[in-house]
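Practice problem. Given the sequence and the SMILES for 2-acetamido-2-deoxy-beta-D-glucopyranose, write out the predicted structure.
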Amino acid sequence: MAETPSAFFSAVVVTILAVLGGCSAPSEAARAFFVFGDSLVDNGNNNYLATTARADAPPYGIDSPSHRPSGRFSNGRNIPDIISEQLGAETTLPYLSPELRGEKLLVGANFASAGIGILNDTGIQFVNIIRINRQLQYFEEYQKKLSALIGASQAEMRVNQALVLITLGGNDFVNNYYLIPYSFRSRQFALPDYVRYLISEYYKILQVEHSLKPSILSSMLVHGCCSPERDWNSRFYSFCSSLFSVPNSCRGYMSSGPVELSSPGPARSAASRLSLP
Ligand SMILES: *[C@@H]1O[C@H](CO)[C@@H](O)[C@H](O)[C@H]1NC(C)=O
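Answer key:
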């Protein structure tokens, strides 16, 4: 990694903006936007759940206009907020928010839940979180509500033209494989085999929901240089040191980056881009 993490992060944002390029015409009604995944994109769902995976206390939100935590795992906005802004749309509401009804449904919805991963056993320590299968069930439920509002064919069109962001995978490492020394998954799989297993499971998830055509897949963050992971696990520490040679700072994300998907199919192009450093 020659580039600095902040430069890398900027590159990620620029890529997202490029992906959005064709759809920010202000005169058109904004596209609907659907968000699935983990804490990188959760904007408050976990606040409605009995879980410890929540961002409802300071310093979360300190740089937002209200300076108060909103459930985003961020000091201010998160990536979905920036995308919504580029779409010329309001921020999507968390699916569990009681405010998500009526016209608000047209904006889309955020189904993400902090702590989840590709695997069902990722994040079990957080107990009550919305795993990806459940997020997809909620999406089905959402579509019924949208149909009731604008009719089935309009709803289908809106969903088909929507922008879909899925951010999954980081927790399968930090909150599963590397969570404790000799974790079940690390005894079960060597790292390269685990990565292959994750990709095959991710592929199945993407196949489940045929009406969902992800526009952006982002995953595989490495947050090994953040202090919690360094404290938990010395393997992270050495990985972090080798990567950045600045072991004492929490360096942002390293990701395969947002992927603009095209044929022959989402999972294949995602899989070809997913690799570990
Ligand atoms: C994960 O859980 C869901 C819902 O219980 C189930 O349908 C799915 O098959 C499980 N996935 C795996 C890989 O076991």
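Check your answer against the key. Residues 120, 133, 201 surround 2-acetamido-2-deoxy-beta-D-glucopyranose (CB under 6 Å).
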